[in-house]
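Slide 14.
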Amino acid sequence: MFSEEKIPNGFVKNIMDINFSNSQRAEVLTQALPYIKRYTGKIVVIKYGGNAMTSPQLKKQVMEDIVLLWLIGVKVVLVHGGGPEINELMERLGKKAEFIDGLRVTDRETMDIVQMVLAGKVNKSLVSMLEAKGGKAMGISGMDGNLIEARIKDAKLGFVGEICNINIAPVSDLLEKGYIPVVSTIGCDKEGNAYNINGDTAAAHIAGAIGAERLIMMTDIAGILTDKNDPSTLIPEVTVREAEKLYGQGIISGGMIPKVNCCIEAIRRGVKDVTIMDGRIPHSILMELLTDEGAGTMFVGDRN
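Slide 15: predicted structure.
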């Protein structure tokens, strides 16, 4: 639980280590206390992928944010993708990536590559970075402990999986032992076949199964914009019912549709708040959780 004595040794030290201006540090420290009290001991699931993973500097800052939250008693679960790394290895092996409706067509050879990159290179790299920043992390895949049980989603997609069950015990056990679970989104069926699982979908299901207070979806855009070309038109908060109206108005369209669907799915599975935000903004996680300003668009349940 929350202890103010922990702040000077953990939170303040890390804020001072992070590349903030003095005014930003002071503002964060002033605003942070009530949010620390709200989130300490609670579970926050972070879905991490996209361009925030390809920039070494941004990756470093994301790891700093996660360790800082862990130091102040937030139970963080990191769910990650690794599309760019998969594409890079496929290109090196002379294999062309193919997508249908935004999903990677995954034959058996591609599935081997996905498993090698996500459960191996990317997962262990993130664990190592968290440990280097002072955290205590453990990497697992959705195959470990049958965390993500899956079946074929569509035969034309190959080994792309549809989640049929989440066995949350492996993640819960790691949290209870004080670890930051780092989850790669590979599922399996009862015969042991591996499946490529959409990272956003996996994060929504895991957050719901573990009873997360918050789910943060790091993307390549600021959130939902009423005018996609004008960042000032960001919608800071939206209910599920309001989001469904935005579909009809064409405000939620294209690549945002599946991401918003995952946010709504998480809310319906019991997650209190879900935020889509731009992971390319330095320390956007801290802005969202520990300041009055926030970041991105927050989804909440319908108001009565």
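Speaker note: DSSP finds eleven helices and 14 strands in the chain.
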